[in-house]
Amino acid sequence: MLESTTAEAVTTIIIGLVLLAGVVGVILPVLPGSLVIILGLLIWAILVGGPVVWTAAVIGMLLALAGWSASTVLTGRALQRERIPRGPILIGIVCAVIGLVIFPPLGLFLGFALGLFGAELIRRDYDWQAAGSASLKALRAMGIGILVEFLLAGTAVAAFLLAALIHFIF
């Protein structure tokens, strides 16, 4: 635990910035956003300490973990339901990285969508309708997963902000 209020305040501000980077990482998957939030909250609780801080950190870590898990489960189920193997997803990820370099930040999403569609088109013997339908369903599932993870990550950051406010006022 830190000894001075100034050190606690500086640590809280730095961790707050790390948590904001984590929330951005949920939407723009350059960083593992939920993992950054979990680690940030854990470090904050260890350094600052106190019952309010630890309670908020544990709640925030559980929320971030739930969002991360929900995103993975929702996306995985949709991909299994549509029988999309890992190959087209990996091609979509490679195209997303290329798109990010060529046309940041929208290229990430466009590259993934076009890469996934192209891989599905080839895999489904150039059946445009089947490839388009499967790709749209996979993208919708991934979007819902990202939205759920974002909402829970935002709630975790709100718990942090509330606890920081309580910690420094009372």
TrEMBL record:
InterPro entries reported for this sequence: DUF456
Assigned keywords, A-Z: Membrane, Transmembrane, Transmembrane helix
Keyword Membrane tagged: yes
The organism of origin for this protein: Nesterenkonia flava
Name the UniProt record assigns to this protein: DUF456 domain-containing protein
Membrane-spanning parts: 12-31, 37-68, 89-119, 139-169
Taxonomic lineage: Bacteria, Bacillati, Actinomycetota, Actinomycetes, Micrococcales
Pfam families: DUF456
